Structure prediction request, 342 residues.
Amino acid sequence: MAGTRILTLNEVIIQKQSAFPYAKGELSRLLSHIGLAAKIVNNMINKAGLETSIIGETESINIQGENQQKLDVYADETFTKAIQASGLVCGIASEECDEITVFDDDLSRDGNYVICMDPLDGSSNIDVNVSVGTIFSVYRRTTPHGQKVTKKDFLQQGNKQVAAGYIIYGSSTMLVYTTGLGTTGFTYDPSIGEFCLSHYFMVTPKTGKIYSINEGNYIKFPLGVKKYIKYCQENDPESSRPYTSRYIGSLVADFHRNLLKGGIYIYPKTASAPNGKLRLLYECNPIAFLAEQAGGMATDGYGNRILDIQPKDIHQRVPFFTGAKAMVEKAEEFMKEFGDGE
Ligand code: AHM
Ligand code: MG
Prediction:
């Protein structure tokens, strides 16, 4: 629009900086380093069909027992380097690394923050040109300065996050983040190489018409989930049912669509995966923080708020129910009534 001033990610985080006087602009600088890594990874993802050196699997298997994609490794290295270069972060827990990485260089050793990240979520979708994402979560260190951080610094409840966000590499690339003052979205403009403010104070609808779950696992679902799915499919014009089913298989993309349009995303436990598939630290906690900041909700389906779960392990999995508040509450009702029964 002529005359409309474009605000870039860097400008907005500088403006918002005054809300965190204690952080002395640190969080803003950190987000700007994450934005830089996002641009580099975005560039590489856009070339995925052309660069044979970057598509396909590596020979290694990560701690999850999954084959790492070449782009998983590339994204992990890019985000790690950009975050380390900020000098603000003293350690990273990544989906791609079995153990935490502790920075021991002069610049980062005493950084105030630790980061949990999934550098490339949904990466099995890259080779078929479907949206993927990066998810990150920022905490203050708990180990005193002068000592190396340990696992304990990362095993904090999600309600201690000082910032969280994701980048979605989709039909356009977006960075969505929160520092606890609402959820804000920026869209990447490749012509100027900047993330520009496009979604100020995102508010998710109170209820919606979309349910997102891998129904291929139906027979292994808890009875409460099966009953909820049937409820979504029943005819009831008053509550807009039947709902529509949408599932990409990329958490960030499924969540992002539901955030904007109103919906629920569920990855429950199954008979073969008793804690579900998604990881608490670098998938569920950051997404839950963003959901709540946009007026939504996130639980484990058993009445527990995701952000209040005490993590015990870096790669811990948890059942995940997130999205519009009324929909999550309804799914919880079914889980309460029918639980895990057959
Ligand atoms: P990943 O981190 O190895 O990519 O796995 C997480 C992904 C999520 O993005 C997605 O929602 C889910 O796995 C899909 O799993 P499934 O194929 O079992 O439905
Ligand atoms: Mg993932």
